[in-house]
Amino acid sequence: ERSASGESPHRAADGDRIAELLRVFLSNLALFEQGVVIMFDDAHYCDPESLRMIESCVPFFGSMRLILAASYHQNMTESARRRYPGLFGGGDIVELQADPLDEENHLRFCAGLLDTDERETGELASFVFDATGGNPLFSHEAVLYLLNRNALSAAGGTVSFDRTKAPSLYQFDSYAAAAERNAGYLSAAEKEILCVLAVLGNTFTAERIAAFLPRFAPGSAEHLESALDSARILDLISFSDGVYSWNHAGVRDSFYVAADPDMRRALHRDIARSLKDRVSDAPEVLFDAAYHFMRADADEEALSFSFAAGETALGVFALDSAEEFFAFCASGGS
Predict the structure, then answer these.
(1) Cβ(11)–Cβ(49) under 8 Å?
(2) 51, 43 in Cβ contact below 8 A?
(3) Phi, psi of 85, deg, nearest 5
(4) What torsion, rounded to 10 degrees, do the Cα atoms 64, 32, 37, 68 define?
(5) pLDDT tens digit string along 210-242?
(6) pTM strictly above 0.70
(7) Contact 203, 243 (CB under 8 A)
């Protein structure tokens, strides 16, 4: 499904070939006599093409000494049931739901985990409950994280928790809510820059920033370095191999929806037109151009590029991407 920014991960890959190689890999794993457990964590972040590929392998698990354990957010369940019946269709598949813990249960949880009395964990339990929303899977991770960050210590039944050393709640709770909270540490100029960067895409380079930022955030040059540094310190973006990327779609979306709508459309249009002459370079460039034309409300160009992107996606077996582009065309560009 699309995020608030309307972008989805378009992957160009020969699905049948990769699925066959995956089955061969699983068959080799199954040769281990003691069996193998494969953990598929955070399945709700997986792109549609990869989920379909995993779904195609499910029938083979019954004849192998393999167990596939997947974790996913409960909000994924209903849409996943409809789109991937092979993953949620019963049979040998067992679903377990972890219900949230209330604050009182967090007292017992933290006390048991740290082998101490509940009276020692009052402030810690309150913090963990607020940070995780009661999700027991994240609560365990949160406590370990605090221990590793030296914000928490437990010895001889005594617990010491220094809230001032606790990291951002971003690590545990809603990315969008955390981004909104962390944005409070940014200056107005830095927020304006991040709103522009959110329109640029899930990833962006220094070259793309230089090409578009001056036009859509006048006077931003003197604040760009501090905006990027602050965003990295606050865990909003990462930088690797010359490319900046948002740490999560929810982080990007919070800035995307805060951007001025007229600015968003104009910037999408300029980016799309800058890509027009390069769409033959690679399918990803065509997909990128189509996406930006769609978000620019450039009706004629959006329909033309979306149709071309849909046909290209079919040719490289990116079926979910093709479906999205053709659906846009069928709706008349809405």
Answers:
(1) yes
(2) yes
(3) -60, -25
(4) -20
(5) 989 888 887 777 888 888 888 887 778 888 888
(6) no
(7) yes
Q: Determine contact, residues 242/281, Cβ cutoff 8 Å.
A: no
Q: Strands 36-40 and 66-70: what pairing?
A: parallel
Q: Alpha helix (H) ranges present in 115-205?
A: 122-132, 136-148, 175-182, 188-200
Which residue pairs from 164-167 have beta carbons closer than 8 angstroms and sit at least 24 positions apart in sequence?
166/127
E strand segments, the chain? 36-40, 66-70, 152-155, 158-161, 203-205, 237-240, 243-246
Apex CA 253: angle with CA 251 and CA 258, to 5°?
Answer: 110
Instruction: State both tokens at 297.
Output: 């409300």
Report the C-alpha gap between 322 and 311 in whole angstroms: 7
Q: Tokens in use for 327?
A: 């659906």
Distance CA 223, CA 187 (A): 9
Taking the C-alpha atoms of residue 1 and residue 10, their distance in angstroms, rounded to an integer, is: 12
Strand partners of residue 37: 67
Q: What angle do CA 284, 199, 288 make, to 5 degrees?
A: 15
How many helices and strands in the chain, by DSSP H and E? 15, 7
Which tens digits make up the pLDDT trace of 169-195? 444 445 555 566 667 778 888 888 999
Taken in order 248, 262, 180, 206, the sign of the CA dihedral is positive
Rg, Å, the chain Cα set: 23
CA distances from residue 9 to 50, 90, 134, 247, 303 in whole angstroms, order as listed: 11, 28, 30, 14, 19
Q: What is the DSSP letter of 247?
A: S
For residue 97, give both structure tokens: 């739901």
Residue 175 contacts residue 183 (beta carbons within 8 Å): no
Q: Are 100 and 136 in contact (CB under 8 A)?
A: yes
Residue 316's contacts (CB-CB under 8 Å, 6 or more residues apart) are 12, 13, 14, 283
Helices 48-61 and 15-29, axial angle in degrees (round to 10): 40
C-alpha–C-alpha distance, residues 185 and 207, integer Å? 26
